[in-house]
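Final report, Chapter 2: Outcomes

The project's central promise was a pipeline that accepts a single protein chain and returns its three-dimensional structure in a standardized token representation, suitable for archiving and comparison. That pipeline is now operational. To close this chapter, we reproduce one record exactly as it appears in the project archive, with the input sequence first and the structure output second.
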Amino acid sequence: MQEIHLHFPRQGKWDKYTMTAVYQDADGYTHTDHYTQDDIPADQAPVLEATVTAIASMGEDWQASQVWAQLGDDSVINNPAAREGAVEVHEAVLLTVEAVNSAGGRRICTPSEYMQFVLADPSAVAFFRYFTALNS
């Protein structure tokens, strides 16, 4: 299992967070590495900022409190008229977001509901791999 978990302790405040990377090493042992915003390497920070922008785009009614990121596939239809090769599949980071509203309600938001939660940019995939394969 490989996963990145982001926790935002204050609703709507995106500058403070805890990130936990969960991954298995070569021997099959599961590791969890914890980071804060101050621990993210400078060359990885822009990707995380783009991720936070996608999360913050939910609007004012719902604010992310937790995010789970997993590696998955993104399908793109590039030529609907073609019989073969019409669908391209690329690796993508898929975000599942737990959001809360001002009344205390909670809901889970998935990539199937919010296309901005599918991060198909190769730099997002590289970010995910950087933290989940760091010591494996």
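Archive annotation: The mean pLDDT is 85.
This record, like all others produced under the grant, will remain available to the consortium after the project formally closes.
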